[in-house]
Write a structure and sequence with these properties.
Blueprint lengths: L1 E4 L23 E8 L14 E6 L2 H12 L5 H15 L6 H8 L5 H12 L6
Antiparallel strand pairs: 1-2, 2-3
Helix pairs in contact: 2-4
The chain binds zinc ion.
Protein backbone atom coordinates (compact mmCIF):
# COMPACT_ATOMS: atom_id res chain seq x y z
CA UNK A 1 0.00 0.00 0.00
CA UNK A 2 1.26 3.46 -0.81
CA UNK A 3 0.23 6.91 0.16
CA UNK A 4 0.46 9.47 -2.59
CA UNK A 5 0.84 13.21 -2.85
CA UNK A 6 0.61 15.16 -6.06
CA UNK A 7 3.93 14.68 -7.79
CA UNK A 8 5.03 11.90 -5.44
CA UNK A 9 3.23 8.68 -6.23
CA UNK A 10 5.50 6.52 -4.06
CA UNK A 11 6.12 4.00 -6.83
CA UNK A 12 2.45 3.50 -7.67
CA UNK A 13 1.00 5.60 -10.46
CA UNK A 14 -2.33 6.88 -9.14
CA UNK A 15 -4.07 7.45 -12.42
CA UNK A 16 -7.00 9.46 -11.11
CA UNK A 17 -7.36 12.29 -8.61
CA UNK A 18 -10.59 11.31 -6.90
CA UNK A 19 -11.66 8.72 -4.39
CA UNK A 20 -13.25 5.73 -6.11
CA UNK A 21 -15.52 5.16 -3.10
CA UNK A 22 -16.91 8.61 -2.22
CA UNK A 23 -15.79 10.45 -5.39
CA UNK A 24 -14.09 13.20 -3.36
CA UNK A 25 -11.62 15.17 -5.46
CA UNK A 26 -8.09 14.71 -4.10
CA UNK A 27 -6.47 18.14 -4.02
CA UNK A 28 -3.32 17.38 -2.03
CA UNK A 29 -3.27 13.84 -0.78
CA UNK A 30 -4.72 10.51 -1.62
CA UNK A 31 -3.85 6.89 -1.18
CA UNK A 32 -3.52 4.22 -3.79
CA UNK A 33 -2.50 0.64 -4.10
CA UNK A 34 -2.56 -2.21 -6.58
CA UNK A 35 -5.22 -4.90 -6.29
CA UNK A 36 -5.58 -8.16 -8.19
CA UNK A 37 -8.66 -7.91 -10.40
CA UNK A 38 -9.12 -10.40 -13.23
CA UNK A 39 -11.70 -8.13 -14.89
CA UNK A 40 -9.20 -5.30 -15.29
CA UNK A 41 -7.68 -5.07 -18.77
CA UNK A 42 -6.33 -1.61 -19.63
CA UNK A 43 -6.77 -0.71 -23.30
CA UNK A 44 -3.07 -0.25 -24.13
CA UNK A 45 -0.82 -1.44 -21.28
CA UNK A 46 -0.83 -5.23 -21.02
CA UNK A 47 1.75 -5.05 -18.21
CA UNK A 48 -1.13 -4.00 -15.92
CA UNK A 49 -3.55 -6.77 -16.95
CA UNK A 50 -5.33 -8.02 -13.84
CA UNK A 51 -3.50 -5.50 -11.68
CA UNK A 52 -5.79 -2.53 -11.04
CA UNK A 53 -4.81 0.57 -9.10
CA UNK A 54 -7.42 1.82 -6.64
CA UNK A 55 -7.36 5.39 -5.34
CA UNK A 56 -8.99 6.60 -2.14
CA UNK A 57 -9.21 9.70 0.03
CA UNK A 58 -8.45 7.94 3.31
CA UNK A 59 -7.12 4.67 4.74
CA UNK A 60 -10.70 3.67 5.59
CA UNK A 61 -11.94 4.16 2.04
CA UNK A 62 -8.86 2.43 0.63
CA UNK A 63 -9.50 -0.53 2.93
CA UNK A 64 -13.14 -0.70 1.75
CA UNK A 65 -12.07 -0.63 -1.91
CA UNK A 66 -9.52 -3.38 -1.28
CA UNK A 67 -12.18 -5.44 0.53
CA UNK A 68 -14.64 -5.07 -2.35
CA UNK A 69 -12.01 -6.28 -4.80
CA UNK A 70 -10.90 -9.16 -2.61
CA UNK A 71 -14.53 -10.26 -2.18
CA UNK A 72 -14.62 -10.85 -5.94
CA UNK A 73 -12.92 -14.05 -7.18
CA UNK A 74 -9.85 -13.73 -9.37
CA UNK A 75 -10.58 -15.90 -12.41
CA UNK A 76 -7.73 -16.61 -14.84
CA UNK A 77 -10.16 -17.38 -17.69
CA UNK A 78 -11.75 -13.95 -17.22
CA UNK A 79 -8.33 -12.33 -17.54
CA UNK A 80 -7.60 -14.36 -20.69
CA UNK A 81 -11.00 -13.41 -22.16
CA UNK A 82 -10.21 -9.75 -21.55
CA UNK A 83 -6.88 -10.10 -23.34
CA UNK A 84 -8.66 -11.72 -26.30
CA UNK A 85 -11.30 -8.96 -26.35
CA UNK A 86 -8.60 -6.30 -26.46
CA UNK A 87 -6.78 -7.95 -29.37
CA UNK A 88 -9.97 -8.67 -31.34
CA UNK A 89 -11.08 -5.07 -30.92
CA UNK A 90 -7.90 -4.07 -32.76
CA UNK A 91 -8.46 -6.76 -35.44
CA UNK A 92 -12.17 -6.69 -36.31
CA UNK A 93 -11.49 -8.86 -39.36
CA UNK A 94 -10.52 -11.69 -36.98
CA UNK A 95 -7.30 -13.63 -36.49
CA UNK A 96 -6.15 -17.20 -36.80
CA UNK A 97 -5.75 -19.13 -33.55
CA UNK A 98 -1.98 -18.90 -33.95
CA UNK A 99 -2.06 -15.12 -34.50
CA UNK A 100 -4.48 -14.67 -31.60
CA UNK A 101 -2.17 -16.66 -29.32
CA UNK A 102 0.82 -14.62 -30.47
CA UNK A 103 -0.91 -11.26 -29.98
CA UNK A 104 -2.47 -12.10 -26.61
CA UNK A 105 0.51 -13.98 -25.21
CA UNK A 106 -1.87 -16.85 -24.36
CA UNK A 107 -1.34 -20.51 -25.15
CA UNK A 108 -3.57 -22.28 -27.65
CA UNK A 109 -4.98 -24.16 -24.65
CA UNK A 110 -5.92 -21.00 -22.76
CA UNK A 111 -7.88 -19.49 -25.66
CA UNK A 112 -10.67 -22.12 -25.74
CA UNK A 113 -10.87 -22.02 -21.95
CA UNK A 114 -11.37 -18.24 -22.16
CA UNK A 115 -13.99 -18.76 -24.87
CA UNK A 116 -15.81 -21.27 -22.65
CA UNK A 117 -15.75 -18.83 -19.73
CA UNK A 118 -17.13 -16.10 -22.00
CA UNK A 119 -19.84 -18.38 -23.43
CA UNK A 120 -20.97 -19.35 -19.93
CA UNK A 121 -21.44 -15.65 -19.20
CA UNK A 122 -23.48 -15.25 -22.39
CA UNK A 123 -21.25 -12.48 -23.67
CA UNK A 124 -19.60 -12.65 -27.11
CA UNK A 125 -16.01 -11.59 -27.72
CA UNK A 126 -15.43 -8.20 -29.32
CA UNK A 127 -16.85 -8.14 -32.85
ZN1 LIG B 1 -13.34 8.61 -0.12
Amino acid sequence: MSSARNGDRAGVDCVINWCELCEAFLVDEGMCTRVRDSSFIPPHDCALDGDRIVVACSPEHLAELIKRTSDRPYVEAELWAGKIDRVLAAHPQGLSLYALATETGLTQDQIPRAALWTARRGKPFAQ
